[in-house]
Write a structure and sequence with these properties.
alpha+beta, 4 domains, seven-stranded antiparallel β-sheet, six-stranded antiparallel β-sheet, 14 helices
């Protein structure tokens, strides 16, 4: 009977407007190459034919892609068929769907289209299944989002309550933009792209009059003044670029809790200026939250919270529930998302790890720095002073890592924290832990500590409690999953009971 029902569900195609949007997007990416061919070719007809041929191939590829892509949603599965020469058949059970991500790039928005990305658990703690529909109409994308997040039959007489607002953009948070590593790295990538493009076009920035004049002035100025001028220019560029990237990424940000027709709740994040993005995370499948404090952001009193759920991208922004904000606001958003007081999750008072953990953090930081310092002193004596600065910096980093270590088992969550350059506090739901891994290296054995890792299908697949006392680590895992590790805590077990 089920096969008959499935066969009656009609296949759907992507929106016909993708016949225009797809090729236009590809042609836009090929435009710099075409310009280089035309500018450097000096009117060579062969280069003109190459550029025209590339455009024809792109358009033909868009038509084939639209013609060979189809999808359908049955009562229990989402199916996607793509490809002409290399055919792909993907099918995801609907009960494994965790997230639905709607993305509308600037070109897609101009034509009223959106990209639907469906994230689902794959059955492996470290992998997730994913289906991308690029693209459907904006109205169809919103309908698909609601349909895919529903967990059961929807009755016609059910009144869906309005979305509950949890957070919205505060432009005062813009001050945290220059303190994020990703924004600064993005400026570097933009600068490298511009330089490579100028190089491909045969242009030297030094040939530009203003740049050439400034270079001459720097050559005649004192060294310290030249270094200061270059550093100021780089910092200014990084700060301005970071502010622009932050504003584009988080413009219009809102975090809401929505209820589907069957009563299922989901967290929804909407943001973006040029590229609009809407991320929906099914709340029953939410496994926790991660509060991240990169060093610069932490020094500025900020943090950022991400959701832990299968089906999310594994990059820094994959499950972000908010932009970088003040630490108190991050704790509040985590509390609202998990429906728990901050003191039970990300702001929970943590148990300190033993002195051996501090010794190990210091050793792992200082010894490599001392080796580098010694090498510099022997091979490059004039640079030996750098080594003298490196060792105390490494010691400070090791002490900060040691202070960050901590864990606690609360009523519904396992809370763990580690890191210095990027301090991470994870609140993982106890019922979302699939198992525990306990590791002990020879050095840890001598120190009497272990690393306990909670295995989960969400986020990175595993979250560790680093360098905890052996007895405390086993007790933590056993208390979080009662009875699972009890045999290890007997008198004859490998791990000590006290």
């Amino acid at each position: 009977m089920s096969e008959t029902v499935v066969s009656e569900v009609a296949w759907r195609r992507l929106d016909p407007r993708m016949l225009v949007v797809g090729p236009l997007g590809s042609l836009g990416r090929l435009l710099p190459v075409a310009v280089i061919l035309l500018v450097t070719g000096g009117g060579d007809p062969v280069r003109l034919w190459i550029a025209a041929g590339a455009g024809v191939v792109v358009v033909l590829g868009g038509v084939i892609r639209w013609r060979t892509t189809r999808y359908r949603i049955t009562g229990d599965r989402v199916e996607l068929h793509t490809g002409l020469f290399l055919r792909r058949r993907r099918s995801v059970p609907r009960d494994r769907i965790r997230t639905v991500d709607l993305t509308a790039k600037l070109l897609h928005r101009a034509f009223g289209l959106s990209i639907v990305q469906v994230g689902a658990a794959s059955g492996s703690p470290t992998e997730s299944a994913r289906l991308d529909l690029d693209a459907v109409s904006t109205g169809e994308a919103e309908r698909l989002r609601r349909e895919l997040l529903d967990r059961g039959p929807v009755t016609a007489d059910v009144t869906v309550p309005p979305a509950e607002p949890l957070a919205r953009l505060d432009w005062a948070w813009l001050r945290f933009a220059p303190l994020t590593f990703t924004a600064l790295a993005g400026i570097g990538a933009i600068g490298a792209t511009v330089f490579n493009l100028l190089d491909d076009l045969g242009l030297d920035p030094r040939d530009i009059g203003a740049v050439d004049a400034a270079t001459d002035r720097l050559r005649t100025a004192p060294i310290w003044l030249g270094v200061l001028a270059v550093a100021t220019a780089l910092v200014t560029l990084a700060v301005v670029g970071a502010l622009l990237l932050w504003a584009e990424r988080w413009y219009g940000y809102t975090l809401t809790r929505e209820v589907s027709g069957d009563g299922t709740t989901a967290l929804r994040v909407r943001r973006g200026l040029l590229t609009r993005r809407s991320l929906s995370v099914a709340e029953p499948r939410l496994r926790g939250a991660e509060l991240v404090e990169p060093l610069l952001l932490r020094l500025g009193g900020g943090a950022q919270v991400s959701a832990l759920s299968a089906g999310l991208d594994r990059d820094d922004q994959g499950g972000a529930l908010q932009p970088p904000t003040p630490l108190a606001e991050s704790h509040r958003v985590a509390s609202a998302a998990l429906r728990e007081p901050p003191a039970e999750i990300t702001a929970a008072p943590l148990l300190a790890h033993p002195p051996a953990a501090r010794t190990r953090r210091l050793t792992r930081a200082v010894v490599p720095a001392a080796v580098v310092a010694l090498t510099l002193g022997l091979l490059l004596p004039p640079a030996g002073w750098l080594g003298l600065l490196l060792v105390p910096l490494a010691a400070a980093l090791g002490l900060d890592r040691a202070r960050a270590l901590g864990h606690r088992l609360t009523a519904r969550h396992v809370v763990m924290r580690e890191g210095s350059l990027a301090r991470r506090t994870v609140a993982l739901r106890r019922d979302g832990v699939l198992g525990w891994t306990i590791r002990q290296s020879p050095f840890q054995r001598r120190a009497g500590v272990v690393t306990v890792e909670a295995v989960t299908a969400a986020g990175r697949g595993g979250y560790r409690v680093l360098d905890v006392a052996a007895a405390d680590g086993v007790a933590l895992a056993d208390a979080a999953a009662p009875g699972l590790l009890t045999p290890w805590r007997t008198e004859d077990a490998r791990w000590p009971a006290s």
